[in-house]
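ok trying this again, last paste got cut off
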Amino acid sequence: MYVCSQVLKRLVCPKEFVVIRKLSFFLPLILLSIVMLSCSSQNSTSVSAAIPNVSGAWEFQASSSSNSNTFTGIEVALKEGQIIVNGMQQPNGQISASGASQIAVVSVNPNTPSVVFGGSCPQASGGAYDLNGSVASLGGPVTFTYTENGNAFNVTGTLSGDGKSFLGTYTSASSTCVDSGSISGSVVPKLTGTYDGQFTLPDGTSENVTLTLTESSSGALTANMVGTSPITINFTLTGPVTGNAFSVQGTYQSQQVTYEGYFGVQVLDPVLNTYVSGVYLVNATNPANPIPAGTLIPPST
């Protein structure tokens, strides 16, 4: 410790030393502020650049530039890879879907309405259905390739800022099913609710029915069918859901039956005189000869 007297001030405590002592007091505070600002900047950058979690139920609608009468629905239970960051799992931006429980393709004519399950492309390269690609950031680029019955299509576009919708374009990557156009995507809610209408039973008779859909947290759908006219029926079908498409199985009068369904066709409600989202169903017990079974709509209120 230095003590400065009035006499020895110039010799022992020159002005330069006084300034240095003052600086030495504030220097740690200045360095600490710089470090904190640097860390804050780095944390802000890492958060803003974080790869979003986009796994879940999605529907992508591909609208052809050469055919305005139909659109292709790519229905997926989208998966995203994970990496370990600071001991915690984080999404790595690699997205995928494969197998009947994760991806289904439908060709929808909204004017009829009618749905072709499996899509309209002829079989190629083994007839696979899958999706693989990557997502970079919220509001950033998304690229993926999906296959419809073995026909590959390349997709590029942009994810929305909230990570729940997508806009882009697509083009065919093979010569068997050539097409291109615009594509949009959105996260879809679970399939639930009650729907009424005329339904063709497995024996070919027509029935006024009420269909109740319930989707579990694991993506399994329960479809309960109840009818009272002209006869009383009550049977339950279960199966997987992919986006807005589903395939359910059950027993009707000791007969094993399979139905495929799609939610989202627009049907005119004759009571409300407005279009509502309905459920389109086909009897796919014989997959080589699917039979349209009916389009059911929410009860009019």
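PB: full thing came through this time. The longest strand covers residues 71-85.
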